[in-house]
Structure formats: structure tokens, C-alpha cells
Design goal:
Among the domains are: 93 residues, Immunoglobulin-like (Sandwich), CATH 2.60.40.1220; 41 residues. The protein is built from 4 helices and 8 strands. Strand 5 and strand 6 form a beta hairpin. The protein has 228 residues and is an alpha+beta fold. Helix content is 37%, strand content 20%. The strands form 2 sheets. Strands 1-3-6-5 form a 4-stranded antiparallel beta sheet, with no helix packed on it.
């Protein structure tokens, strides 16, 4: 009888332990499953895409709570530079994050944070790879003509003076030609005067001879007619 009385207090303790175990097995998992989880993304985690898309999308298991600062998405390239273009938007269970139009090839890292439908914040991260760069290659344009430095630029005053200056006159050539003709005429005049002098001297000599012959008829060189 005494042994049975001592074992009765153990029954409530065992019952309480069983209830606690049931709570941990059933209630706690239900509470954890209430947080919204990510179902997929585009680009997918650990995938490789041709070029960086215009936006990144995240799909969750339930409608998210939206509000200022509730949703954040950060996407960085291999150098750690951000490639996001503006803030993320929430449409029900889908989060859309715009990305830049041009990006280099390489690995990209995504970090996201949302507020689940139960009001609890949830976050995660994953990576993806871009195979080809979408950065436009600059084309070679026409080469710009280098501007002349002040030392190379022509002086406007000197240019105007050179333009306004008259062309060299041909007067020296004309004077030279005139001088040549004057010398020729002078020489011709001297020659003409010399010839005229010779002719005058010759005529005067003949006149004197004629006078002498007329005065002396016996001169054999006389041209006077002889008397018969």
C-alpha cells in the first residue's frame, strides 16, 4: 500500500513532458513554416546567362508586405560595383529589381531582404554568371584637326598688310629698256654725225680742188675744157 502511494505523483510529470514534446514537434514547425520562402529567381541561382538582363526577379511563396525599406535587393559585379538601376518593386509575391543596361562579363552576387506575410523579415543571397559583356564598344570617329597654337596662328595684321600691299611695280624694267633705247639712239646719232662730217669734209675738199683747177688751167688735174 505504501509503495503505490509514492508512485502516484509521477503521473502528472510524465503527462506534462508528453504535452511539451507534442508542442515542440507540431507547433514549432508550423510557426517556422509561416515565414515566406523564395521559390525561384531570374536569373536562377548558380546559373549562367548570355548577358546581364534588364531586371532581376525573385518569386516568393506568399504575398509580401510592402513598404518603405521593407524590400531591398543589391546586385554587384565581380569588382563589387552595384549594377542596380533604381529601387525594387513588389507585386504580390514577386520582387522586380531593375538593372543597368550595360555590364561586363563575370560573376554577380545578389543579396535580398523582404518582409514575409507574417511580418517577419527574411533575407538570402545567391550568385549567377554573365557570359558576355553588354558594354558597347566605342567606334572610331573622324580625327579632329588640331587647332593651331597661338604661335602657329598667322598674325591677322601681317596677313592684312600682305594682302593690301601692292604688287611690285615693273618700273625698273621699263626704265632699263628706256635707258637702252636712249643709248642706242645716242650711238646712232653720233655715228650719223660722224658720217655727215666725213661727207662734208669730202665735199669741201672737192670744192677746193675745183676752185684750184679753175684758177690754174695748166694743172693737169683741172677739169676745165681745153681751147682749140
Amino acid at each position: 500500500m505504501k509503495t503505490a502511494a509514492r508512485r502516484r505523483p509521477l503521473v502528472p510529470v510524465a503527462l506534462a513532458a508528453a504535452l511539451l514534446a507534442a508542442f515542440l514537434l507540431f507547433v514549432a514547425p508550423l510557426s517556422a513554416s509561416a515565414h515566406d520562402s523564395i521559390l525561384g529567381s531570374s536569373p536562377e541561382a548558380d546559373s549562367t546567362v548570355d548577358t546581364l538582363p534588364t531586371s532581376l526577379t525573385l518569386t516568393f511563396s506568399a504575398k509580401l508586405i510592402d513598404g518603405e525599406g521593407a524590400t531591398e535587393v543589391v546586385v554587384t559585379d565581380a569588382s563589387g560595383a552595384s549594377v542596380t538601376d533604381g529601387a525594387a518593386t513588389v507585386d504580390g509575391a514577386i520582387v522586380t529589381q531593375p538593372l543597368v543596361a550595360e555590364a561586363a562579363a563575370g560573376g554577380y552576387h545578389v543579396i535580398w531582404k523582404i518582409v514575409s506575410s507574417d511580418g517577419h523579415p527574411t533575407s538570402g543571397e545567391f550568385d549567377f554568371t554573365v557570359a558576355n559583356s553588354s558594354i558597347a564598344t566605342p567606334t572610331a570617329g573622324p580625327r579632329a584637326t588640331p587647332e593651331a597654337t597661338p604661335a602657329e596662328q598667322p598674325d591677322a595684321t601681317a596677313t592684312a598688310t600682305a594682302t593690301a600691299a601692292p604688287a611690285p611695280s615693273a618700273a625698273p624694267d621699263d626704265d632699263s629698256a628706256a635707258s637702252t633705247w636712249i643709248w642706242l639712239i645716242a650711238i646712232a646719232g653720233v655715228l650719223a654725225a660722224a658720217v655727215a662730217g666725213v661727207v662734208v669734209v669730202a665735199l669741201r675738199g672737192r670744192a677746193r680742188d675745183a676752185e684750184t683747177a679753175a684758177a690754174d688751167p695748166s694743172d693737169p688735174d683741172s677739169d676745165a675744157p681745153s681751147e682749140r
